Amino acid sequence: PLYKRGSAFIPGNYRGIHLTPILAKLAERVIGRQLVTFLQSGKFGSHQWAFTPGMSARDLVTALMMSWILAICSGYKIGGYLGDITGAFHRVFKDYLLAKLCSAGVGDQFLNFLLSYLQPRRAVVVVEGVASDEFEIANQVFQFSTSLSLFSDVTQPAASTGGEPSIFADDLSVFQKFDRKKENNECLRTMHVCRARVHNWGRSNRVAFDPVKEHSIIIHSSQGEGDPFKLLGLLVDCK
C-alpha cells in the first residue's frame, strides 16, 4: 500500500499497488494500442485533455488562465467549480463502463477482452513481509485509460448553467463568465447549482466526488472570493 494523505493510521489513506504479471501487461499494450487510438478520435469527449495527442496539463492551464485574463479585461469575473472523482480508477462500475464503450462503437472483440480483463481478482496486502487474508477486488480498471470514456458525459450537467467544462483524466473544472457588477453570492449560487447537477450525474453513474478537493470560487483581481485552489498542481489565488 502506498500512503497518500491524512493520518498514517487509517487504512483508507493508502492506495494499493497492483503487481500485474508481465503477460497481462503485454496483452494490455497490444489491445490498448488500437483501442485507445480509436477512443482518442472523439470518444473521450471534446473536453477531455488527458490521453489526447498534442494536449497536456500545461496546455489546459495556459488556455484557462488566458481566458480568465481576457474575460476580466473585458468587464467580467469568473465563477468556478472544481471537482475530483474519488478513486476514479478504483471504483468503476464495470457494467456501466462496458455499456458506454459499446455505445461509443467499440467492437465485440475488444468488449470481450475487457469483460475478461475486468473480472474480479484475488489479492492480499503485504506489509513488511506479512500478508493479509485473501480478498476480492472488483469494479476496478487498474489504471486502464478506457475508463475515461465513463466520465465523458459529465460535461453535460457541468455545462448546464452556461459554464465551460474541462476534464483532465478525473479532474473536472467548470468556469463561467459573469458581469463584474453581479453580486458574488449570485455567481456562487449558480456554481452550486452546477455542482449539484454534477453530483446527480455521479449518483447515476455510481461515482462520487472528493469533498476535500471541491471548490466553488470567484476569480477577479479586486472581487475574487474563495481560498487558493490547486488547478492540476498549480496553486491559484482567486485575486
Describe the structure.
With 239 residues, the chain is of the alpha+beta class. The chain is 35% helix and 20% strand. The chain has helices at 22-39, 57-73, 94-103, 108-117, 148-151, 155-158, 184-204, and strands at residues 2-3, 14-15, 76-84, 121-123, 126-127, 130-131, 135-137, 164-168, 171-179, 215-219, 229-231, 234-236. Helix 3 packs antiparallel against helix 4. The two termini are 39 Å apart. The model has no long low-confidence stretch (mean pLDDT 85).
Distance between the termini: 39 Å
Global outline? globular
β-strand number:
12
What average pLDDT do the residues reach?
85
Largest beta-sheet characterization:
4 strands, antiparallel
Radius of gyration: 20 Å
Structural class: alpha+beta
Unreliable stretches covering 5 or more consecutive residues? none
Strand/helix succession: EEHHEHHEEEEHHEEHEEE
- How much of the sequence is in beta strands? 15-25%
Question: Which percent bin holds the helix content?
Answer: 25-40%
Strand order of the largest sheet: 8-9-3-10
Helix segment tally: 7
